[in-house]
Design a protein that fits this description.
Elements lengths: L6 E6 L10 H14 L8 E8 H6 L1 H6 L2 E4 L6 H9 L1 H8 L4 E4 L12 E4 L4 H4 L6 H17 L2 E4 L2 H11 L6 E3 L16 H4 L6 E5 L8 H13 L5 E5 L6 H10 L6 E5 L3 H10 L2 E4 L8 H8 L4 E4 L4 H5 L4 E3 L4 H13 L1 H15 L4 H17 L4
Parallel strand pairs: 1-2, 1-4, 2-3, 4-5, 5-6, 6-7, 8-9, 8-11, 9-10, 11-12, 12-13
Helix pairs in contact: 1-17, 10-11, 10-15, 13-16
């Protein structure tokens, strides 16, 4: 039997500034952890990571799991990162005789040294340009079509994103593949100390882990939560993740509605604390207007946390019938759902059980297998 030649794959992570890029960071790093648990030697595959300096400190397990080449830049300047992808990266790819480069951040550099796979997480900048700077929208309007044109294969995290890429960018369906997010209990982490005391969680709480981007729709949630407290529900609202353009508006609304003492704005929390928050929340409340997948929904279900989510974009694909799905603009509907779940222990138990069953259809090991298959398929394809 003829052995297949070992496939050398490079993963371009120069776009991944830890703590900045949101859900695409979680998706990519967790998928890499699942790849690290595979027997890649048996797959006849070697994966090399190309990363920024801050990535080394943020993800030591991944650095230990894969050959890693560190670009000597901090990543603070997007222009410098983009330049490094077209200068430093091709040199490193040639030096290490990489057969295929996976550009995991949505675009392919202008200058390349090997055939490409690209992950396009979603097309929100094209569909909702008002949520982004004019410069970013102009850049992606040029680079996204060019990137999918030059890629041998386009990876997306959901069927929603896949269909959008096909329809909006005119890509042939057979040049796309879906590699969904997963949930694996063994990847959950434990907190250090007592998060309940550290974050002053002295009563039941709802959880929303999301950067304050416009599309994350914190405003609807805060308005609904204020109605719930006005009805007498003795609950808190916990908001995690870093601030962004809507931060000031959200905090002003919290003050205007008189719920400052009921809102815990925690910012970024360690992974172990976040897993604890999922496991102990009354419910995950996820009113986002746009998601390429919605990984926090899956992680909540895996931790037995009831889910109340928007019925927009990819979220129904993830939640299925295992959670409550609502119009992201229906404040009264959100308030009613929050109050119902907070008041009804049986309802919470039913939703938690449904979520645990649903999450079994999404496993990181399956996602890793899908990505390995995508690499093999891309390597066998001709240049587009």
């Amino acid at each position: 039997m003829t052995r297949r030649a070992r496939l050398r794959v490079g993963v371009n992570l120069l776009w991944l500034v830890p703590g900045v890029v949101g859900g695409s960071e979680e998706y990519t790093t967790r998928l890499l952890r699942a790849l690290a648990e595979r027997d890649l030697a048996n797959d006849e595959m070697e994966i090399t990571l190309f990363v920024l300096r801050p990535f080394v400190a943020a993800y030591p397990r991944l650095i230990q799991s894969f050959p890693t080449i560190v670009c000597p830049i901090s990543g603070r300047s997007k222009g410098v990162r983009i330049a490094a992808e077209s200068t430093w990266l091709p040199v490193q790819v040639r030096r290490r005789r990489i057969d295929l480069v996976h550009h995991a951040g949505g675009t392919i550099p202008l200058l390349r040294a090997a055939p490409s796979v690209v992950t396009v997480h979603d097309l929100q900048p094209l569909l909702m340009p008002g949520n982004f700077s004019d410069l970013k929208v102009r850049y992606l309007r040029r680079r996204l079509p060019a990137s999918v044109k030059h890629a041998r294969l386009i990876v997306s995290p959901s069927e929603f994103s896949r269909r959008t890429i096909v329809d909006l960018l005119g890509v042939a369906f057979e040049r796309t593949v879906t590699v969904p997010s997963g949930y694996t209990a063994s990847l959950a982490e434990v907190p250090v100390g007592d998060p309940r005391a550290r974050y002053r969680l002295d009563r039941p709480f709802f959880l929303y882990p999301a950067i304050t981007y416009p599309h994350k729709n914190h405003v609807t949630l805060v308005r609904a939560f204020a109605e719930v407290t006005a009805k007498g529900a003795d609950t808190l609202l916990v908001l995690t993740h870093r601030p962004d353009s809507m931060e000031r508006d959200v905090l002003r609304l919290v003050d205007a509605l008189g719920v400052r003492d009921r809102v815990r704005r925690l910012g970024h929390v360690p992974r172990g604390d976040l897993d604890w928050l999922y496991a102990n929340a009354v419910a995950l409340t996820f009113p986002s207007r746009f998601e390429g997948f919605g990984l926090p929904v899956l992680e909540a279900m895996g931790n037995g946390c009831p889910v109340i989510a928007s019925n927009a974009t990819a979220l129904p694909e993830v939640v299925g019938d295992a959670g409550v799905l609502l119009d992201p603009n229906d404040v009264a509907g959100w308030a009613a759902a929050l109050f119902d779940v907070a008041a009804d222990e049986d309802r919470r138990s039913t939703l938690a059980a449904a979520g645990r069953a649903r999450v079994k259809t999404f496993e990181w090991s399956s996602s890793a297998e899908g990505l390995v298959d995508a690499y093999r398929e891309a390597a066998a394809r001709p240049e587009p």
